[in-house]
Design brief:
The chain is mainly alpha-helical. The protein has nine helices and no strands.
Length: 191
């Protein structure tokens, strides 16, 4: 929950900044803040934390059903990605995408059968990489860190392109390069 809620916060922040419309764009900052709260509340166990998380989830669900609940806290318009999306949660969501891409697609047949999910997971991986490259996170302005983000974005783009063209032979090298970038980045920047 923590990882997916952090991803929701990041996606909602992106939607609020992007000129394109989504059905819930008017409430994107509310979703961002609720996702952030859900990410925080889901890190501990216990009945009270479960209830708090469930209440937040129900508010998110209501907004997505175009039934915004009353009494929501007015969102900060100038919040940064750092303020609302845990980099650790985003990285674990990236790791989940990578692991799925690596383990679930090992043949041309699987590639063709799962191309929509492949494109989705690669897009999520790329979006999370772009977000953790935002200057509001520490190290983001370090040229080496920025290189890891850029290569990951390039390779996720190659995966999406490969799904569109049906090119399985381009898929695996891109997945492997993402793995290498993640490992190199963690070696240099993980604290």
């Amino acid at each position: 929950i923590h990882n997916n809620a952090a991803a929701l916060s990041a996606i909602a922040q992106v939607a609020s900044l992007n000129p394109d419309a989504v059905s819930w764009k008017a409430d994107a900052l509310y979703l961002r803040d609720l996702g952030s709260k859900l990410s925080e509340s889901s890190t501990e166990r216990g009945t009270s934390k479960f209830r708090a998380s469930k209440e937040i989830f129900e508010k998110i669900d209501d907004i997505l059903k175009k039934n915004k609940p009353a009494g929501l806290t007015e969102p900060k318009k100038d919040a940064t990605f750092f303020d609302v999306a845990s980099r650790g949660g985003l990285m674990r969501r990236m790791e989940a995408a990578y692991k799925w891409l690596k383990s679930e697609v090992k043949s041309d047949e699987q590639f063709k059968a799962k191309k929509q999910t492949i494109a989705h997971e690669a897009t999520m991986l790329g979006l999370m990489a772009r977000v953790i490259g935002d200057k509001s996170y520490d190290s983001a302005e370090d040229p080496e860190y920025a290189k890891h983000v850029a290569v990951t974005l390039e390779e996720t783009g190659k995966i999406v392109s490969a799904t569109k063209s049906g090119n399985f032979t381009a898929y695996q090298p891109a997945v492997d390069r993402i793995y290498n970038q993640c490992n190199e980045c963690h070696t240099g920047f993980r604290q």
